[in-house]
Model the fold of this input.
Amino acid sequence: MDKLRDTRAAVGDWLGRAALRSPARLALLSFAVVILIFTALLSLPAATSSGERAPFIDALFTATSAVCVTGLVTVDTGTYWSAWGLAIIATGIKVGGLGIMTLASLIGLAVSRRLGLTQRLLAAGEARASGLGDLRSLLRTVLVVSFTVEALIAVILLPRYIMLDYGFWKSLGYSVFYGISAFNNAGFTPDPVGLYPYSKDFWILIPIGLGVFIGGLGYPVYLNLMRHWRRPRTWSLHTKLTLVTVSVLAVISAGLLAIFEWSNPKTLGNHSAAETAGNLFFQSINQRSGGFASFDIGNAREQTWLLEDVLMFIGGGSGSTAGGIRVTTLAVLLLAIWAEARGRRDMEAFGKRIGTEVLRGAVAITMIGIAVVVVGTGVFMAQTDIPLDRALYEVISAYATCGLSTGITADLPPEAKTTLIVLMYVGRVGSMTIAAALALNKQRRVIRYPSERPIIG
Done:
């Protein structure tokens, strides 16, 4: 017993020292180790429906896509992987959705029975916004909300799949898989035909769409709403900005998608007005991070691809299962533009002032994201003969961990698949490492240089 206690203490001390020295490095290492573990599991013969070992690049790609909750695939999920393989993928999605940083905080809680500065740094990437002052409540909220929403989605979908003659056990497996995939914004579909045949079946689309929407809000928002749901005026600025920005983006994207695809016979042109409206809002929710599609993206118009490029890059809420630069980053940038246009000294929203250090962080995250996408697209195009529009779409989808694709992923050469693997990894851990670096490098200087304003524009 004493030896077990000593071992737990040693593990806790090691985690503490590693997190204090370099939480970003610990985050990168943790994600890499988990990805390799799931790669090994998917490489087992039992993981494929044929009973043969999956090629290493496909196992690594699928594991990375699952753990990074992306949804891009090089092989058909429903036909290539066995039931055991689907269970491995679903577990990888769950682990990635909860976040390695949140799991690290849970380890720290189990070892030391308390969460201090070390564990706060570990969790900073996944939930660095509101709510970090009480990590016990945050972790409780993470588990309760995720399992509850996933279970509700599965319960709603189960009778529908039974009615579609899938059989009870297969229906149960599909329902649970979709529940996990939807809430975690993963975009994986266990059905070989995906969601295309169900573009007119709102019994399936509505729960999946709602799961994606809720999963993309972020754990700090859940914590704040659960505490103050009866008093909207007391909601945090982060919660208000997230809800408003997400809602506005959903309406704008649905409207633009209607303009682009309403008359396209290859996507929504053959649907009734009600069916088209339902698909528009389903797709507008998934365009930013969900990764599900009720029609073939490869047959969409190029204007739609451009729209989704922008939306995927924006992503979802901070501390959520979504990717991208996050909606609050966009909100801060827009508020800065609005304040500058009106000649105001401060950025203000909902009666609160936003500090300039927040703007600097938003600019840093955005510019780093743009740089990664530009470089990634250049490398990707050099490795393939794919034109710019499709290459840019695939790269942004990987970096923003969205998972939408124009249908080129399966035919990519190994080196291009490797590029997408790196982009998914960087996109998932990037915000965590940047947030940790910014938090640790924050310095207060007594002596400041004299200011001078250069000419802008």
In short: DSSP finds 18 helices and two strands in the chain. Residues 104-133 have pLDDT under 50 and may be disordered. The two ends are 68 Å apart (CA to CA). The longest helix spans residues 135-163.
